[in-house]
């Protein structure tokens, strides 16, 4: 039964992906696209049940073609991306300072994470250290207000279209969930930049993060699904069971939840 469900899911994924690439010219009507999206979501609600994904994880959303606001921002597998936004006033109630080193000394907002993720992060850093990999935090929690300031600055520097490629609109940053953190080597070299991909720290994170409940949220080659280029430094806590499934099946969080964003 499990294999049947899995094979249905894979064929559905393939059909959607090919559909996506065929429609790259965006001649398709938006109504048609939206119907397709709803069909996929409906079809997968049943399948997700067999995968033990809690129903409330499925982000019951407003039925609109545009941006949707997640209604369960506190679940560990909450989906936040260019289509699914956190409520503007959402601040996690259990933010703490993880007991790990950061590349800065100050007690800033960006040092915080939600408690469960903070505990897991400490274990991850300790596990890395055993393998002689020394990690530091770069940026964890980020409030809606901070994201707004950042995004506006990037738009000024690079223009709106470019800024959207690497920065999130306020409300759509995973950092607001308190479950995501950018990580670097303890020297801070290549922190949150593409050269981090070639470091031993990045390789360790890719191989081992899932054992601690984290995923590489924006993997290589999945830009059309996540809406973001490869970010080997941005890890996202989803819980150990989910992280291991995502890693084993080489999925993104969008694919795991079967909720695809429109990346443009
Ligand atoms: Zn990040």
UniProtKB/TrEMBL annotation:
InterPro entries: DD-CPase-like, VanY-like_core_dom, VanY/YodJ_core_dom, Zn_M74/Hedgehog-like. Residues 111-239 form the D-alanyl-D-alanine carboxypeptidase-like core domain. The keyword Signal applies. It holds the Pfam family VanY. Residues 1-21 form the signal peptide. Keywords: Signal. Coiled coil: none annotated. This is D-alanyl-D-alanine carboxypeptidase-like core domain-containing protein. It comes from Gottfriedia luciferensis.
